Prior knowledge:
By secondary structure, the protein is mostly beta strands.
Amino acid sequence: xxxxxxxxxxxxxxxxxxxxxxxxxxxxxxxxxxxxxxxxxxxxxxxxxxxxxxxxxxxxxxxxxxxxxxxxxxxxxxxxxxxxxxxxxxxxxxxxxxxxxxxxxxxxxxxxxxxxx
Length: 117
């Protein structure tokens, strides 16, 4: 079994920065895809950033150029990070980390990011 736990969510002013972390524990050696999703108020969950099974990183939509998705190591990844800069009110959401192996998908419980004055 794999457990994911996000941290780092906070209230931040527009234009500010924040880094989210996701710790991965349990049987993580076979995980090969990692993502950050978010769910804005009243909306469905949407993909923000992805590391695919070849290690390629993709940022989706307006996350590109403002966000950076990284991890502590390529093998047996234990931590994911989402560095967010130039935050906007529309970035307000619950942010979830996600990982998968060949059989299962795993989710954290989410961390709240609020961008407001």
